Amino acid sequence: MSQPTDFHTQLNSMSVLLHSFAFNLTKNTEDAKDLYQETAYRAITNMDKFRPGTNFKAWLFTIMKNIFINNYRKKAKANTIVDSTDNLYYINSTVDAIANRAESSMMMKELVTLIEKLDDSIRVPFLMHYQGYKYQEIADYLDLPLGTVKSRIFFARKELKDLIGKRYTDMALDLD
């Protein structure tokens, strides 16, 4: 894909798949169109970063997924309440107490650390499944057979279970 024309041709041939994936992520037609346009724009402006001989479809889907995640995070931050009153009236006006979730936050950080230790071949499908992708979507995205995806997710779970067991066995031995 050395010519820009070839790049645009391949991008156009992926249009239907990209629109489907965008709708799958956003669940909204207008948002899906916006996501597709942003993906196409970024792909075109970064076409020099695409390495010929690699998976063009996966490259485009990764761009789209990253744009979607970044937009989601921006929306989540935009919904954060900032109280600028002198006495913090709005923040202190709630009737219900908020539970301290520090312990579960710490466990999640430990789990993320263990997941990062997994080999990419099983970590990527596992994380996609965790994020809500269906097996077939993962298979299509990674260009793998459905059975391979299911096996890799199974092996990721098994390895995580072993890592967790080993971690807490080691911790118990340290306490003795």
TrEMBL record:
Keyword Transferase among record annotations: no
Keywords assigned by UniProt, alphabetized: Sigma factor, Transcription, Transcription regulation
Gene Ontology MF term list: DNA binding; sigma factor activity
Lineage top rank: taxon: Bacteria
Gene3D superfamilies reported for this sequence: 1.10.1740.10, Winged helix-like DNA-binding domain superfamily/Winged helix DNA-binding domain (1.10.10.10)
Residue ranges of domain RNA polymerase sigma factor 70 region 4 type in the record: 110-160
Protein name: RNA polymerase, sigma-24 subunit, ECF subfamily
Organismal lineage: Bacteria, Pseudomonadati, Bacteroidota, Saprospiria, Saprospirales
